[in-house]
Structures are given as C-alpha cells and as structure tokens.
Task: structure prediction
Amino acid sequence: MGKRWLGLLAAGLLAVGALVVPAAPAMAAPTFKVPFPCGQSWSGQTRTNHSPAYSIDFNRTDDLGDPVVASAPGTVDRVTDLGGTSYGKYVRISHAGGYHTYYAHLNGFNVSVGQAVGYGKVIGWVGSTGGSTGPHLHYEQRLNGADIQVRFNGALALYWGTKSYSSDNGCSSSSGSGTVNTSGTALTVRSGPGTGYAAVGTVADGTRVTIQCQTSGTSVTGTYGTSTIWDRIGSGRFIADAYVYTGYDGYIPGLPRC
Ligand SMILES: [Zn+2]
Result:
C-alpha cells in the first residue's frame, strides 16, 4: 500500500462547513510498465492519426518474434485472432479498477483466456498480423473501455512523438520492504495469508519489515485502505499489506508472488 492513499485520505477529510464530506472512492491505477522484458529499450511512437489516438506503436531493430510481456498484473480476458484486419492477433488483459491493456499484431500467443498474469509474464511475440505493414507492437491502455493516455510507472508517455522507453518490467528483486503503520496497536502475524490462519505473533507499530513475497488472501481494511494482499515476512509468517507502507498501491513491482 502506498502514498496515494494518504493523499486520498487527506482529501477525503476536507471539511465543508461543519460537515466532513468523504471523497468518492477512487481506485488507483495499476502501476503499468513498458510491455517488454526487464532492461530492454524500445522506441515508442504516438501520432495524432493513430486509432485509437493514444495508442503507442513500439519498435526496435529486428523485433519480429521478440517477446511481449504483461504491463501489470491482471487476468487475460481476450486472446483473439481477427485475421488480416485490425489488431490481427491480439491479447487483452483486465486489471483492477476497470483498466485494460491491449497488445496487437502479435505473431503468436503465450497465454489463454482466464489466465492470471504478473509483471514480466510473456503473453506473446511481436508480429505483423492484421492491418499492419511491418512488425511492431500496438499497445493501448483503456479505462472503462475508453482510450486513455499511456503511463509507465505513473509517468505520461510522450504525446506526440517518438521516444525511447526502457523497461523495468519483471526486473527481479529478491525482497521488498515496508513499514508497519497501525497507529499504535501491534499487528498480528498469521501463519498464512488470511485472518482465518493462526496468530503466531505480533509486530509493533513502526517496525521496518523485509517482505520475501506477496500473495492474495482475505480482504483486510487497514491504514492504507482495503486490500487482499498479504506480505510474507518469514517462514509461516504473514501480515496484511493494508497496514504496511511499501511505497506501492498494489503489489511491489518485481517482488515474487508466494
Ligand atoms: Zn498502432
């Protein structure tokens, strides 16, 4: 859980007269990353005559057959071949908060509908299928179906023009860290990722913890909102991420899933 929640909480407590008006609930955007493996650099082009307008076409030298990876964790909800028109072979991934990403003109698929994917997962390969005149990846981010301006790690892509984007997608990191924030009380450590698991100890408010991996478990509402993410801080030791400041609203990028 991260900084953005603090801002939302602060904004939500703005008083109007004597009334404290809660802000409308807002789901933070996933942290989208460049859709290519860690360390690669790709040239991304935006242009006003592109359809839809905010799409990015990615290229690099000899890119036919290069792997394309998931931009953020989510669930594959389309693996479709439109033949010689439009997107050709394309994958769509559904992300939290009503976001989707599209990966088009692929040479082939490496995922199927319903599959959960994380950062760095190869979903297919760069191709020139559909209405394409040469190998490239056509990439889109959408919110509730509407084409939106692309952001990587929260930073807006170049509109309009061509820019080099370097990927930190799926870069390995052996562990993450966070700080427990409970506003006073000790946080219960569980033997598994959920409130139904046995309590095996506590960590004091303000404790800096090393996070070995993260996984999904029971939903917990804590200091940083409501989350199903649980952090493993040792063998058979899990704490609810909703009480841990990690600098990220969702999963910590690059950290393994348990
Ligand atoms: Zn395109």
Observations:
- The two ends are 17 Å apart (CA to CA).
- The longest strand covers residues 213-222.
- The helical segments are 3-12.
